[in-house]
Design goal:
This protein is of the alpha/beta class. The chain contains 8 helices and 17 strands.
Length: about 325
Amino acid sequence: MRRRRTRAPLLLAATLLLASPIARSEDVSGSEMRVGKGETRTGDVVLLGRRFLLEGELDGSLVLVGGGHATVSGRIRRDLILLGSDATVRRDAHIDGDVLSVGGSLAFEEDPPAASSDASSAGRHAQVGGSVRTVSALEAAVATELQTSPAASLARWPFLLSFRLAILLGWLLVSLLLLALAPRALGEAAGRVSGNGAFLAALGATAVLTAAFAGALALSVLPSRVALAVGGFLFFLLLAAKTCGISAVFLAAGRRLNAGARRGSPLFGDPAAAALGLVGLGAVSLLPGVGPLLWGVASLVGIGISLSAAAARGARVALAPS
C-alpha cells in the first residue's frame, strides 16, 4: 500500500477549487454514511469529521473535512477532496476526476504510481482519471509554524530549526515593511497592548472560534465549492489580521526592551524595537512546552489588536463631522 501524508493548513485548498463549476452538496446525517454495491448517490457529498464508505457509485464529488475518513472501493464520478481527513482507495475503486489531499493521509492499494513528480506536485494512479495532488511542499514550514518548538522533536532538530528561523525572518521582514508603510497606525496598535493583553487575547480567540463555526455552518448549508470559498476567505482574513497584529505585538515587546536606548544608538527607534521584540518572542517560541503556548497567545493578541484597531477607526469615521 502506498501512503501519502500532508499536514498543511486545511483551507489552502479553497483557492484551488474556485475555478471549478459550482455543484450541489448533499445534506447527510448520522456518524457514518454508506453507499452500498449497486447503489448510486447523486450530487456532491460534504462530510465534517465523519466516516464514508463507498462501494457503489457517487455521481458527484466527495469532500471530507476535519478528521473524516473514507474507504472507497466504488466509483466517484468527479473529485475526491480531503481537508484534514484520511482516505483509503481500494484496488477496484475508480475516481474520474482529481484527488486533492491537504492536511490528511491518502493511501492507495496499488503498485507505485506510473509517473510522479516532486513531493508537492501531481502523481498518476491507476484508479484516478485525473491527477493526485498533495500540498506537501509547505509541510515542514507549516509544521514548524504550528508546532513552533523544534526542540520537541530532537531527531529532526536541525531541519525544523532551519525552517523555524526562516519563518521568523519572514515575520521580521513583514513587520519592517508594515512599519515603513504605516508607522503611525502600527505604533498606535502597539500602544493598545499595554494593560489590555488579556482582553485582546480573548477578542482574538473569539474571532478564531467565530470563523471556525461560520466555516462549519457554511459547509452544512451551502454548495461544497461555495462553502470552501467562504472558508478560505475567512482563513485569509484571520491570516491578514494576525500578520498586522503580531507585528504590533513585536513592536510593543521591543519598545519595552529598548526603552532605555539613547537617541542615535543602534537600538533606538521603532525598527530596532520591532526586531528586538521578534527576537525575544522568537527565542521563547523555540522552547518546548511553553514556547508554542506563548506564541499562540501572541497570535491571538495580534488578531485582537487588528480587530480593536479596525473598530476604533470605524468609530472615528462614523463620528467625524461632515
